[in-house]
Amino acid sequence: MLYLIADQLGFPGVLNLIRYISFRAGAASATALLIGLLLGPKFISWLRTKQGKGQPIRADGPQSHLAKRGTPTMGGLLILTSVAISVLLWMDLRNQYVWACLLVTGGFGLIGWLDDYDKVKKAHHAGLSGKTRLLLEFLIAGIATWMMVRTGGTQLHLPFVKETVADLGWFYILFGAFVIVAFGNAVNLTDGLDGLATMPVIIASLAFVLFAYLVGNARFANYLGIPHVPGAGDLTVLLLAIIGAGLAFLWFNAPPAAVFMGDTGSLALGGALGAVSVATHHEFALVIVGGIFVVEALSVVIQVMVYKRTGKRVFLMAPIHHHFEHLGWSEPTVVIRFWIISFVLALAGLSTLKLR
């Protein structure tokens, strides 16, 4: 909004700063952080009053989690509110990529909220049916991908390879939708310990700030041999808003958590990262950067498939972070070690920019 106002005025004086993506992205991050920190205490108190018993805790999970009973969920609403206000304030409202990613973020957040609401209302951890969730997620992701490919193209790119691997045509919409839905649910599965999903999302967002900025700049994109997507640079505003909102939420989610983000936050943040990777044509780089989420999701898939076939479990409990808890690792140990791994994977993903 401020960008259009400054543009209409001709970017006079200090408003000339708004012309630069770097300034608007930094301002969006600071705005989201401030909103989150200011609204957090009253918002959490309101959630605690409304929810009573808070998020249901699984009786078959690690016994240490039973002490978390009564902790309110749906804290993702705080993240989404901070992100939405800051992005709408600092983005170029004419940018279709940001709007497409906001559609995924808000749409997935709504699906997650419905799931969280169902869990709290019924005092059970089941939530919405899997089929209903996936149908709604694919619908939203498909529309968002269609919005992006109209100008961003349908070319498939791989890390370490300069040339376009293939042009998928309209099949790219199915591919993009799958990436968005898969990553949304991968982050959702990771959100099982205090701070476990939040910091890896922040780290992955930091990595994609660089991807988005370089992809949106013709000179850098041509030099690095990566796809150039005009307008993708404005996604840095969204990503840095997520980082600011994520840091604010982590202030309240640090052990012992005062609030859980719930599916409202985890599904939305994962979907946002997936959508940004589709917009920048760095879907496979996301697999590396967000490798911790990929491993968490695969651990669930492997556990279910093997158990159905043999009746035996590969892991003591899935997702895999619970496996390490059953091995005797304390919750902070699991969380911090997963953060370290996420940081290393982000560096590995960024290395693909030069190793081509």
Characterization of the model:
- The protein is an all-alpha fold and 356 residues long.
- It has one domain (2-351).
- Helices cover 68% and strands 1% of the residues.
- The protein has 14 helices and 2 strands; from the N terminus they run αααααββααααααααα.
- The chain has helices spanning 2-9, 21-51, 76-90, 96-122, 130-152, 171-190, 198-216, 218-224, 235-253, 262-279, 283-289, 291-310, 320-326, 331-351; strands at 155-156, 166-167.
- The chain has a two-stranded antiparallel sheet with strand order 1-2.
- The longest helix is centred in the first third of the chain and has 31 residues, at 21-51.
- The radius of gyration is 20 Å and the shape is globular.
- The two termini are 38 Å apart.
Give the SSE layout.
Elements: H1 2-9, H2 21-51, H3 76-90, H4 96-122, H5 130-152, E1 155-156, E2 166-167, H6 171-190, H7 198-216, H8 218-224, H9 235-253, H10 262-279, H11 283-289, H12 291-310, H13 320-326, H14 331-351
Antiparallel strand pairs: 1-2
Helix pairs in contact: 2-3, 2-9, 3-4, 3-9, 3-10, 4-5, 4-10, 5-6, 5-10, 6-10, 6-12, 7-9, 7-10, 7-14, 10-11, 11-12, 11-14
